[in-house]
Amino acid sequence: MFANPLQKPTTKGKSFQDREAPHQYAISDYGYGKDAVKILHVKRDGPVHSIKEFEVGTHLKLYSKKDYFHGDNSDIVATDSQKNTVYLLAKKHGIENPENFALLLARHFMQKYAHVEEVHIHVEEYPWQRVSAEETGCQEGNGNCNYTNINNRARHNHAFIFTPTEIRYCDVVLRRTDPKQTVISGIRGLRVLKTTQSSFVNFVNDEFRSLPDQYDRIFSTVVDCSWEYSNTDKVLFCKSWNIVKNIIIRQFAGDPNVGTSSPSVQHTLYLTEKEVLDTLPEVSVISMTMPNKHYFNFDTKPFQAVVPGENNEVFIPVDKPHGTIYAQLARKDIASHL
């Protein structure tokens, strides 16, 4: 999935007249590319191996639309050639992180092909984590290993475990007419849940309302979050990504022993976005979506002969329908690109 830039390029003074159009219609948007290019890169430092597995999308927009209007393919960089480029640049330069690899690809297409007006690269990283050597249960010499308990202690040289807690992704957009390079980082599918310290009260009370005030409820959501950098010259992308993830979890969960109160999903979302902008000055705008994943209390009142008393232990997971809460927070001093 290709994310739209959070900061929109200005269109002031730009004409949308399509002089190539052979009739009264104009192509208002266009482009082409290769999606879902899967790649695994293994970095071998002696006995220690590191892996990066990505799924890459490459989209190009050409100055000319003669391929659309006249069936003239002479300017088209075939999508198969784009796919080959992903593998060849990975071989030549290696892979460090999604953002740097996306920038490498985007700059290659802009420098190699003068007739390309815009490049959009999307990268998703598969969440592999190095197996913990200490927690495998291996004892020297006996070969008896238990691989079910993994954490971040001494880690295995060349074995990995798939840990799909969330998906890391990025989008890079380069335009030949715009000196600003758009770099978006993101987290998708981060599912969290807490069993208390969430409320929802004092909302609109009219003839359409059936939901009672909820002073203490289960709060669960699947966080989607993306943020755009105003400048990437000195950005450490992995460090910044981990900082954002930690802020999301901390604002949701709070102190491990005390927790934190959430009067609404909206308030938790806003506090998260605000802390990201406070902490990372290189981030100019951040967007989050937090849909409710409901857990409704099972009503045991009709079954008092079976289970007397109140029920606060058994809940019914309900994923549809669900509420969706979202917001985008930007610095007020962002120049011209919003």
From TrEMBL:
Keyword Acyltransferase assigned: no
PROSITE patterns: URICASE
Compartment(s) where it occurs, according to its Swiss-Prot or TrEMBL record: Peroxisome
Chief localisation class: other
UniProt keyword terms in alphabetical order: Oxidoreductase, Peroxisome, Purine metabolism
UniProt keyword annotation of 4Fe-4S present: no
Pathway participation: Purine metabolism; urate degradation; (S)-allantoin from urate: step 1/3
Binding-site residues, O2: 79, 292
Molecular function per GO: urate oxidase activity
Cellular component per GO, a single term: peroxisome
Known catalytic reactions: urate + O2 + H2O = 5-hydroxyisourate + H2O2
Residues reported in the UniProt entry to bind urate: 79-80, 200, 217, 265-266, 292
EC number: 1.7.3.3
Transmembrane annotation, as ranges: none
Homology family: Belongs to the uricase family.
NCBIfam families: urate_oxi
Physiological role: Catalyzes the oxidation of uric acid to 5-hydroxyisourate, which is further processed to form (S)-allantoin.
Protein name, as recorded: Uricase
Organism lineage string: Eukaryota, Metazoa, Ecdysozoa, Arthropoda, Hexapoda
